[in-house]
Write a structure and sequence with these properties.
Largest sheet: 7 strands, mixed
Number of helices: 4
Oligomer: single chain
Helix content: 25-40%
CATH architecture: 3-Layer(aba) Sandwich
CATH topology: Aminopeptidase
Strand order of the largest sheet: 1-2-3-4-5-7-6
Length: about 150
């Protein structure tokens, strides 16, 4: 399925919020305030994928942080519309996020993923992410998160 990428704009927020709510369970999906914060935070990257008709196929948001003097990226979310999964949307979004993080000087990117989201874990592992930690009770105070990281250099 052909689709195009572009930077997220403020007008996209209602569609992004609706997709995030559809992709994740209540309490795990970002609240409106959280999603707005991540989209507006200076230096964060927001990428949107659209199909040929301009319909939202997915989006990704990442930020940049410093750790021990090095710049690294943090994948905040990657959301793909359910009927369009396994068609390369997530792959292209992730590649673009990584490209932009590299251009900003990031040497690695990390993320958190629920221990019970095996599909997402496999997706990230196929893209060379490795498990580097675990955060007890990260989701809803009771579901652990795996920390996964990928070197970009």
């Amino acid at each position: 399925m052909p689709f195009s990428l572009r930077a997220v704009s403020p007008d996209d927020f209602p569609s992004l919020y609706a997709l995030d709510q559809a992709c994740f369970d209540p309490g795990i999906a970002w609240s409106k305030a959280e999603l707005l914060y991540f989209l507006r935070y200076p230096g964060n990257i927001g990428i949107l994928a659209e199909d040929e008709s301009g319909r939202l196929a997915g989006f990704a948001i990442a930020g940049k942080q410093r750790r021990q003097g090095a710049v690294f990226g943090r994948l905040i979310t990657i959301d793909v519309d359910s009927p369009l999964r396994r068609r390369g949307v997530g792959h292209v979004l992730l590649e673009e996020i990584e490209r932009q993080l590299r251009a900003a000087g990031a040497t690695a990117v990390l993320l958190e993923v629920s221990v019970d989201n095996a599909t997402a874990q496999r997706f990230y592992e196929r893209h060379d992410f490795v498990r580097t930690g675990r955060i007890p009770g990260y989701y809803l105070g009771r579901i652990d998160a795996l920390v996964m990281e990928k070197q970009l250099s």
